[in-house]
Specification:
alpha+beta, 3 helices, 161 residues, single chain, globular
Length: 161
């Protein structure tokens, strides 16, 4: 092989290896994101279908913390549930987010929460508190037009339709 042929051969081989590596990584990432998000129970303990979660864009109305609560007056922050895929998505007021969702009865766990990383000074503290409380959630209740998310017996987030 001359130098030019060897160079072309090397570039084609290198590009094929990169394409294969990227494809393999994409498949593994997709698999790892989806494999644990299986819904174990299609109904809550009070027989309300889990699909009730999916019927709405739930807007954040209140963040509860140990030192008080914050009422949210804008309809910027919301969460969407895709129970069939085992995923959540939404907006924290400034940044989009997503993650894994596991439901068993009224037990609700979010995992691998990720978001874009823009800084928005007017809503940053709300978004930071929202994401922090979201990671604590262990169960949910739907009462009328409200979605209540709890850490054990402690209410941490409240949403409205």
């Amino acid at each position: 092989m001359n130098d030019l042929t060897a160079s072309v051969y090397y570039n084609k081989t290198y590009n094929m290896q990169n394409t294969f590596t990227f494809s393999l990584m994409a498949i593994l990432l997709f698999y790892s994101f989806n494999r644990d998000g299986i819904i174990a129970d299609q109904y809550r303990h009070d027989d309300t279908p889990v699909s009730k979660l999916e019927e709405h864009r739930w807007y954040l109305s209140t963040i509860y913390k140990t030192n008080g609560y914050t009422e949210i007056m804008t309809r910027k922050a919301f969460i969407l549930f895709r129970t069939a895929d085992g995923k959540i998505s939404g907006n924290g007021s400034c940044n989009s987010f997503g993650g894994k969702l596991t439901i068993d009865g009224n037990t609700l766990i979010f995992g691998n929460i990720f978001s874009t990383k823009m800084y928005c000074s007017d809503v940053q503290s709300v978004e930071d508190d929202f994401f922090k409380q979201l990671q604590k959630v262990t169960r949910y209740e739907i009462k009328g037009n409200k979605l209540l998310l709890f850490e054990g017996d402690n209410l941490v987030l409240e949403f409205v339709e």
